[in-house]
Design goal:
By secondary structure, this protein is of the alpha+beta class. The protein has 2 domains: 75 residues, Orthogonal Bundle (Arc Repressor Mutant, subunit A); 127 residues, Muramoyl-pentapeptide Carboxypeptidase, domain 2 (2-Layer Sandwich), CATH 3.30.1380. It is built from 10 helices and 6 strands, in the order H-H-H-H-E-E-H-H-H-H-E-E-H-H-E-E. The strands form 2 sheets. Strands 3-4-6-5 form a 4-stranded antiparallel beta sheet, covered by helices on one side. Strands 1-2 form a two-stranded antiparallel ribbon. Strand 1 and strand 2 form a beta hairpin.
Length: 222
């Protein structure tokens, strides 16, 4: 079972209950919120304004009949993301079914993912010197959710660091996810030797890769 989002559980109870009510109903106005929580309408409005200020709710004005228009509140993407997701569990479950049916197919799935990422990297890094290729690859990893950055060392080598593992739960069960990551970097940066120097699954707090240019790669400049 997915764990509750710590941001959601850390909210004041009234605001958490408002978000849960809007999630269940799809939309709600201040009067409905007040009735649900047993508070005044003005109190509900204050809470709704705070949640909107925090980027968790948004409102649109609607005229539902005689009288003044109402503000109808819905969750923003950030607000909706606070509720549990089971993507990792579902992914592992589906991969387990694939492995049971055809272990070779499981490897081909990881390989195809690697090939697609490699195509992206080659398209964006074509013709660039190695330093800019490293920058492009780090950007792709960052876009994929790895919170990646890179640095150039005084000796001319580079280090790409992934501060987040976007596929950690999968990698913990299927090591091919990690080996395909290293293979991707090696294929995307053919003018350098790429080795893993830190690994989350081996107790590190990050994954990091050392990139040493081959002698004929040239130093390149940004």
């Amino acid at each position: 079972m997915p764990l509750p989002n710590p941001v959601l559980t850390s909210l004041p109870e009234s605001r958490r209950l408002i978000l849960e009510h809007v999630k269940r109903q799809g939309e709600a106005d201040a009067e409905a919120i007040a009735g649900h929580l047993g508070i005044t309408v003005s109190g509900a409005r204050q809470q709704l304004i705070a949640l909107e200020r925090d980027g968790l709710l948004r409102h649109q004005t609607a005229r539902l009949g005689p009288g003044r228009p109402k503000h109808l509140y819905t969750l923003t993407a950030a607000g909706d993301a606070l509720f549990p997701r089971a993507y990792a569990e579902l992914t592992n479950e589906l991969l387990e079914y694939v492995e049971d049916e055809d272990p070779a197919l499981l490897e081909r799935i990881f390989d195809r993912r690697g090939q697609r990422r490699l195509q992206r990297a080659r398209a964006r890094a074509a013709g660039l010197p190695l330093p800019e290729q490293v920058q492009v690859v780090a950007q792709i990893l960052d876009e994929d959710g790895y919170l990646a950055d890179f640095e150039r060392r005084p000796d001319g080598a580079f280090v790409i660091t992934e501060h987040n593992c976007a596929v950690l739960s999968v990698a913990q069960k299927y090591r091919h996810a990690c080996s395909s990551e290293l293979e991707f970097l090696q294929a995307a940066l053919p003018s350098a030797a790429v080795t893993r120097i830190a690994h989350r699954l081996n107790g590190g707090h990050v994954c990091a890769y050392l990139i040493v240019p081959h002698a004929d790669a040239g130093s390149g400049e940004f």
